[in-house]
Amino acid sequence: METVQLIIDNKEVVVEKGTTILEAAKTIGIDIPTLCYMKLEDTNFENKPGGCRVCVVEVEGRRNLAPACKSECTAGMNINTHSVRVVNARRTVMELILSDHPFECLVCAKSGNCELQSLAQKLGIRDIAYKGEQSHYKSDQSPAIIREMDKCIMCRRCETACTEVQTVGVLSAINRGFESVVATAFEMDLDHSSCTFCGQCVAVCPTGALTERDSTREVMDAIVNPTKTVIVNTAPAVRAALGEEFGMPAGTLVTGKMVSALRKIGFNYVFDTDFAADLTIMEEGTELLGRLGKHLAGDKDVKLPMLTSCCPGWVSFFEHQFPDMLDIPSTAKSPQQMFGAIAKTYFADKLGIKREDMVVVSVMPCLAKKYECSRDEFKVDGNPDVDLSISTRELAQMIKNFNINFDALEEDEFDKPMGESTGASVIFGTTGGVIEAAVRTAYEVHTKKTLERVDFKELRGMEGIRSATIDFDGLPINIGIAHGLGNARKLLEDIRAGKSQFHAIEIMACPGGCIGGGGQPYHHGKIEVLKKRQAAIYSEDEKKVIRKSHENPDIKKLYAEFLGEPCGHKSHELLHTHYYNKQKKSEL
Amino acid sequence: MANIKLPAHKVEELKEVCKQFDHQGSELINVLHAAQGLFGYLPAEVQELVANELNLPLAHVYGVVTFYSFFSMTPKGEFPISICMGTACYVRGAEKVLDEFKRLLNVKVGETTPDGKYSVSCLRCVGACGLAPVVTVGEKVYGRVTADDVKGIIAEYNS
Question: What ipTM is given for this predicted complex?
Answer without folding.
Answer: 0.90
